[in-house]
Amino acid sequence: MNYPVAPVLPWQQELRHVLRRPEQLAEYLELPLALFSAAAAEEFELRLTRHFAGLMAKGDPDDPLLKQVLASPMELAPSPGYSAEPLAESEHFSPVPGLVHKYHGRVLLLPSSQCAINCRYCFRRHFPYREHQLSRSQWQPALDYIRADGSISEVILSGGDPLSLADKQLAWLSETLAELPQLKRLRVHSRLPVVLPQRVDEDLLGWLNDRRFQTSLVLHINHPNELSAELTAACERLRQNGVRLFNQAVLLKGVNNSAATLAQLSEELFAEHIQPYYLHQLDRVRGAAHFRIADTEAKALYRELRSLLPGYMVPLLTQEIPGEAAKTPLI
Ligand SMILES: *Cc1c(COP(=O)(O)O)cnc(C)c1O
Ligand code: SF4
What we know:
alpha/beta, TIM Barrel, 2 domains, 9-stranded mixed β-sheet, 13 helices, globular, binds pyridoxal-5'-phosphate, binds iron/sulfur cluster
């Protein structure tokens, strides 16, 4: 089978053809099906794009990209202290549906529950999205909330993956937001350009290139192998359309917990004009314990990373502590 390298389809069709069956991925990568746990995939569906699968090495159960999507039996091991919603977002910080307001001056809007890829370590893997899927009229309370709070100057489209939504809807949302004079910045948090670079098409650039906003896109790339030629080309188009690019990564055991790998990631991001922004210590979400490295180890790794890079290439190592006024530096 040569499934993932078949002709590239428009992104909407690619999204409909994401890999969801462990058998497909095991067969393509020439790996034993026993690596995958049906029970883990039952709890959080296996899901990845053909593009992302195509970046993996065949026959390597330790491939750093595979690890990020592999529904592993380890997810089912008991993990005290890990919960369904470690950040208590939906309960404590969502004053109106579809909106999370935790930090001064910026709010998250959650326009889509979908992702093109299910990252096993995702802190929103158990998020009750169904309560948050909104039609146009249902966005009104969120828009009113922003309008009523003059301190909000930035809207962040987050997720799920906001770019899994159709551009028509995203254009509507951004147009509507642009009518709120207090808003200066529009930011998109998305992994879609990484896992499906053809998502960056004319329609997307059309609404993103709105001169009423200072626009930025925060990508999510954890390992240098995710930086494909297609992604690089997409980033170039984004930059040409006035979009500033940042990256956040999550510190993941078995994926990027080495200073050399993280230094290489920063160097390659910088070469593509993507500013390394955050390196997150893993949130304690149920099913992801096997990805977490201890804080002491994370700090040691980070010190080593800083010794390898110019300061402007070092992302900020942070953890999320519910109730704090910002993401909290680990050091
Ligand atoms: C991370 C985050 C933001 C953005 O924080 P920045 O430090 O501005 O990148 C905003 N709201 C919530 C709820 C967040 O988790
Ligand atoms: S929200 Fe981001 S980290 Fe979570 S599954 Fe989707 S793409 Fe992955």
